[in-house]
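Subject: Sanity check before I submit

Could someone independently write out the structure tokens for this chain? I want to compare against mine line by line before I put it in a report. The sequence has 128 residues.
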Amino acid sequence: MADELPAVVEERAVQPKGVLLPGVAGISMFLLVLALLNTFAALKGIYGVGGARYGVLGVCTLLVVGIFGLLRMRRWGWAVVTAGALLLAVGYMFLFTRTHTGPFAVQSLFGMVFFLYLVRPEVRDRLR
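---
Independent answer below. Compare away.
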């Protein structure tokens, strides 16, 4: 077992920085579509005309900026998207507990899977 540890450390150190993983690209595409759909919904007035509308537009803008930072493998983009995925999971779980609507539970699970993927050491090691 002691012989296996240095091999794992050496393998981890060889990973190139700044190389995009397929999971990161998939998460980015999904969240980009989700942010754009929420932006159009906010512009059509689905969320109301008051503060909620501008709040959704602000969060969507921040998420889109974070997605482009993540696609460039920047740490700040990773941090914004990771926080967004966690907030997405928590928000949809809150909506599920209030309404008991199944799609909210599924979207919450998607957000949690995205968060758990983004905090993996393999993903964090590739960031610049």
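---
OP: Matches mine. For the report I'm noting this point. The CA atoms of residues 91 and 108 lie 8 Å apart.
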